[in-house]
Each structure stands twice: as C-alpha cells, then as structure tokens.
From TrEMBL, chain A:
The keyword Membrane applies. It comes from the Bacteria. This is ABC transporter permease. The lineage of its organism: Bacteria, Bacillati, Actinomycetota, Actinomycetes, Kitasatosporales. One of its GO terms (cellular component) is plasma membrane. Belongs to the binding-protein-dependent transport system permease family.
From TrEMBL, chain B:
Keywords: Cell membrane, Membrane, Transmembrane, Transmembrane helix, Transport. It holds the Pfam family BPD_transp_1. It is a multi-pass membrane protein. Residues 1-19 have a biased composition (Low complexity). It is found in: Cell membrane. The keyword Heme does not apply. This is Peptide ABC transporter permease. The chain crosses the membrane at residues 41-62, 119-144, 156-176, 182-201, 240-263, 288-311. Residues 117-308 form the ABC transmembrane type-1 domain. Residues 1-28 are annotated as: Disordered. GO terms for biological process: transmembrane transport.
Length: 328, 322
C-alpha cells in the first residue's frame, strides 16, 4: 500500500512536470511578446532589452523553465539590482497585468470556484445518482423511461442556455433571488448559499443528467451479478441488498468520473462563472487570456492539472475502501 | 475496462443485444433494423441527424433558397428607432426572413443557422475522425503488442487525460492568432479526446488477441499488420462505431462552448455557439434570436446522443444497457 502510494506520488509529480513543460512551451514560444506589451508603443530598443532582461526573457527557454520550477519550491528573485523583487514560496511569478503574485491571485479566487464546484457536486450526486438508481431498480417501467428521457434532454442543454433561462425565470421574472454575488461562507453562510443556488443548479443539471445515465447502466450491471442473487437467497432484506451490495459495486465507475469532474471544476468553471459574474478562477483565467497575462494563465493551468491528478489519486485510493476486490 | 480472460466464452459476447427473441446469427444490420422498428425515438433522431447532415452539406444552396447570404445586412428588417429591434413579431419572422433576423444588423437567421450547421458539424465530425483514428490505432497497438508499447501508450493516455482539457483548448485557441480557425479548432478539440477511444479499443483488443481464430491466423503465417487489420480491427469496430456516435454530441457541445467563449470561429463566419453568445445580450428584448440557435444546438446534440445510445445497445454488447 505504502509502496503503491509512493509510486503514484512519483507518477503524479511526473505528470505535473510534463504539463508544466507543455504549458510553458505553448505560452512562451508563441507570438505574443510580453516584454513588448509591458513596454508599450513608444519603446526604444534599449528599453525593450531592459524589460526582457528584467522578465528573464533573454535567457534560453530551458533556463527560464528551470527558474520557474525552482521558484515553485524555494521561491526566487525576479529582476536585478534595485528593482529586484523577492517572490516567496510557492512562487508562480507575478501577473503582468497588475503585478500581484500569481499565487495570491489564485488563492484569492479559489474559495469562489471551490464553493461553486463542491456545492454543485453535492447537488448533482443527489439528483443524478437518485435518478439513476431509481431508474435501474425500476428498469423498463414508465418511471425509468421518464427519468431517462429527462436525463438525455438535460444532458443536451448547453450550460449557458440553462443559466440564462434560470436567470430570466428565477431572478428577472419571479424575483426570488438576487443576482448572484459572492458572499463568504464564514461571514454569511445563508447569503453564500442563496447567491450560489442558481449557479449550482445550472452546473448540477448538466452533470446530474450524465451521472443518471451512467449510474443507471452500472447499477443494472451490478444488480445482475451472482452475489446479488446469493445475498437475496440468504434472506437479506432487499434494502440492504441494494445499498450494501448493488450500490457499492455499482458506484465504482461513477467514482472515476466524479474525481475527474470535480478536479476539473475546482480550478474554475469558465462559462458558469462568467455568466453569473462570480469572481472565481475561471474568470481570472479568462481575463488573463484576453490581456495575454502569461504567468496567470500558466498558474491556472498548473493548478487545474494539480487538482485533476490529485483527484484521480484520491479516487484510486478510495477504490480499495469501496470495492473489497481491489487490493494495492 | 473489458479485460476479459483469454479464451472467455466467445458466444457470450453478443448476448446483450440478442436477449430478446432475436434469431441467433443476426447481422448488425438486421439488429439495427429491428431496433429501429422497436424504438420510435431512435427513428426520429435518425431522421433529425440525417436532416442536419443534409442541411450542413447543402448549406450554400439551402441558404440561397431563403434568398439571403449569412453575412448580408438588411436594415429594412430592423427598427432604427427601437435600437435596431427586428420589425414584426417573433424576432421578425416573415415570408422574407423565415427564422427572423438579428437585431441591429438585420442579418437573416435562417441563412446563419444553416451555415452555422455547416461550420459546427464540420468541426465536430473532423475532430471526431481525428480522435477515432488516433484512438483506434493507439488502442490496437497497445492491446496487441503489449509490453513496452503498451506501457508507453498507456502512460501517454493517462497524461493526456490529466490535462485540464477545456482550459488548455481555450488557451491554445487564444494564443494562435493567424491560423485557419476551423482547422485549428478541429485539431485542438481532437487532441484531447483520443485516450477514451484508445482505452475502449485496448480492452477489446486484449480480449480478442488470444481467440482461436487469431491464433489460427498467426500459425498460418499472417504478419502482425495483416492480423491487426483483418482479424482484430473488424472485432473492435462495433464498440468503436457506437462510441464514435456518442462522441459527436460532445464535440458539437465543445465547439459551441469554445465559440461561445469567443475563442472559436471568428465573426462573420457563423457557428451555433457564437450565435448564442451574440444573442445572450438580447434574450429579454428579442427572445427568438436567443432561442433559435439554442434549439438547433439542443436538437443536434439530443439526436446524436439518442442515436449513439441505440447503436451502443446494438453493437457494443458490454456497454449495452438492455
């Protein structure tokens, strides 16, 4: 188990390194020159060279990358002489746009994206698994068909359409909720939930539909296993059979996609955040793209990759807990 | 993953689809016809899919039938005193403009939706083709050759799947400036999808490669290439076709999402996602403008999903739900 964990952690580091390298390559090789952008239109060649040197862009690419990597673990000094700035651990560089440390920007926005992701995840698990398991247990009945038609329709609706419809119906017409703005969970729990309710619903509808389809399939498969028949033959109450034997093994495939989905959302739901005007990482990312703020883009990409690989690792470890057949 | 033990009962394979009063040995085509008869929803979605494909293929002529080109302004169709609101009810639907017009510019929505179908479906189909070809090749190679090939390819699959794909797609599309947008979008979307197909194919290949008929071909002196193309490929094609059909709606949605975010195809070329993005600002004053491209997008995704579900039930016994 410990050996397995060590191996996985090593692989995790490798994956992150590869992703960092690819991201670095894409954004630092491609056309937009951050030095020229920072220097402005009336830039003399000497001044441009100064800016390049200050940003470290005059060094070979691999050296820039190595510098960037060491910065994450030990912090690094940016610039030289009297303009030198100490960027502390974990250093992801400074935003070109507002000169703030990328790490601080990310951590500032993370609570918003995390609130959105976790809240939506709770909602879609309840809705999706509820619908999927109900449909599986009543396979081929009217309930099953109605649920699955609903699921396939909801899965086909683009999230920006549902979001706009929710804003229109709930906020504009019915006036039930205020237009979402982010309230901190610790300061104002009710305001936090109330303001996030619509974004949660919009996001959760889409995922719930996919989970309903997926969990119905794997639940039907699980309930056809011989050990279910054995459990029933032992005289176990149907409830226990379904929950302890069916659900438990039927949920393993769901867990895999759940890890991926939640990990992917933690670093920002770009579309949902921009429609509802939530100041999360997705919006930060989008803004950084528009202004070619490469350090921020790189930071968000790395954070997103980090969440995905960590979520995958957690999922694989949870397998052993859920499924007694899995051993590491 | 379908890592069926070597020599696992081959006759059990098509059981899923054949459970109900189907004579043994039915060809996939017969099964498909039977399924079509049994499920009217599938029939409808097949028609919708065909209609959309036809619409995309004949876009220039079909668009001309409406009498307007997608980029042509019609100032006579909008009210200059009402901030460019379309004249007439339901977003300006009239014999002149079949689906109404855009506010402000007065561009014909029918022409834009039809041409948008072409762009959206072209990107979705081409990206799917890339994904399926790469995925099948990688999956077959990994499954059949095993060993180091499998290790390398499987690591590559894990790595690709760890990429935050939407974020990466947005970033790549926004940094590349002067490239053909349609080609760029196709390749960027196609880049991240292949591991899914590869895993399905790898699992299937693993279960096929120790079957007797493959052994027979090997003993008979067939080379690896011949075995892969003649014996393995037909065996994996069923699940691949089903998986492919289910990939297309995802591709259509991805293209729409990217264009919605403004990093996809550039105006004035229309695509559904981009039309929706432009119409969001008008959803209260001119709801039809917002609803029309959304309905087309919704129908296309829905129809392809239903069709994919049906094909999976027929062709992929293990992933089948019946």
């Amino acid at each position: 188990m410990i050996l397995y964990l060590l191996r996985r952690l090593l692989a995790l580091a490798g994956v992150l390194l590869a992703i960092a390298a690819v991201t670095f390559l894409i954004f630092y090789v491609l056309p937009t020159d951050p030095a020229a952008a920072a220097c402005g239109k009336t830039c003399s060649p000497e001044r441009l060279a100064d800016v390049r040197a200050y940003l470290g862009l005059d060094k070979p690419l691999w050296e820039q990358f190595a510098h960037f990597l060491t910065g994450i673990f030990t912090g690094r000094t940016l610039g030289t002489g009297q303009y030198a700035v100490q960027c502390d651990f974990p250093c992801l560089g400074y935003s070109y746009e507002n000169s703030l440390p990328v790490w601080d920007l990310l951590m500032d926005r993370l609570p918003v994206s995390a609130s959105l992701a976790f809240g939506a995840a709770v909602l879609w698990l309840i809705l999706g698994l509820g619908a999927g398991v109900t449909a599986a247990l009543r396979k081929d009945t009217a309930t099953d068909k109605a649920l699955m038609v609903g699921a396939v329709a909801a899965a086909s609706l683009p999230v920006y359409f549902t979001s706009v419809m929710l804003i229109y119906g709930v906020i504009r017409i019915a006036g039930l909720l205020p237009y979402p703005s982010y309230h901190e969970l610790t300061a104002d729990p009710l305001g936090w939930a109330g303001n996030l309710l619509l974004p949660w619903t919009a996001l959760a509808l889409l995922y719930a539909a996919m989970y309903a389809r997926q969990s119905r399939g794997s639940m039907i498969e699980a309930m056809a296993e011989p050990y279910i028949r054995t459990a029933r033959a032992k005289g176990m109450p149907e409830r226990t059979v379904v929950v302890k034997h069916g659900l438990r093994s039927g949920m393993t495939p769901i867990l895999t996609i759940f890890g991926m989905d939640l990990g992917g959302l933690l670093a920002g739901a770009v579309i949902t955040e921009s429609i509802f005007g939530l100041p999360g990482i997705g919006r930060l990312f989008y803004g950084a793209l528009v202004s070619s703020d490469q350090p921020v883009v790189l930071g968000v990409t790395l954070l997103a990759a980090f969440f995905i690989v960590v979520a995958n690792l957690v999922v694989d470890l949870l397998y052993a807990v859920i499924d007694p057949r899995v051993r590491y | 993953m379908t890592t069926t033990a070597p020599g696992a009962a081959p006759e059990a394979a098509p059981a899923g689809a054949q459970a109900k009063d189907v004579p043994p040995g039915s060809s996939p085509w017969q099964l498909a016809r039977r399924e079509l008869r049994r499920r009217p929803a599938v029939r409808v979605s097949l028609c919708v899919v065909l209609l959309f494909v036809l619409m995309a293929l004949t876009a220039p002529w079909l668009g001309a039938l409406g009498g307007w080109s997608p980029e042509e302004f019609d100032k006579a169709a909008v009210d200059p005193y009402l901030a460019g609101q379309p004249l007439g009810s339901f977003g300006g639907i009239s014999p002149e403009h079949w689906l109404g017009v855009e506010p402000v510019t007065g561009r014909d929505l029918f022409a834009r939706v039809v041409h948008g179908a072409q762009v959206s479906l072209l990107i979705a189909f081409a990206a799917t083709a890339i994904v399926v070809l790469t995925g099948t090749a990688a999956g077959i190679a990994a499954g059949y050759f095993g060993g180091r090939t499998d290790a390398v390819l499987s690591r590559l699959m894990d790595l690709t799947m760890s990429f935050p794909s939407l974020i990466f797609m947005i970033a790549m599309l926004s940094v590349a400036k002067d490239v053909n947008r349609i080609v760029l979008m196709t390749s960027v979307i196609g880049l991240f999808g292949w591991p899914g197909v590869a895993r399905v194919v790898r699992g299937q290949t693993l279960s096929l490669k120790h079957r007797e008929y493959v052994d027979a071909a090997r003993v008979g002196g067939s080379g690896a290439w011949r075995i892969l193309t003649r014996d393995i490929l037909p065996g994996v094609s069923g699940p691949v076709i089903a998986y492919t059909t289910l990939l297309i709606p995802g591709m259509i949605s991805t293209e729409a999402a990217l264009s919605y975010l403004g990093v996809g195809v550039r105006p004035p070329t229309p695509s559904w996602g981009q039309m929706i993005a432009e119409s969001v600002a008008f959803y209260e004053t001119d709801p039809m403008y917002f609803v029309i491209p959304s309905v087309f997008l919704f129908l296309a995704v829905l129809a392809f999903t239903l069709l994919g579900d049906a094909l999976r039930d027929i062709l992929d016994p293990r992933g089948g739900r019946s």
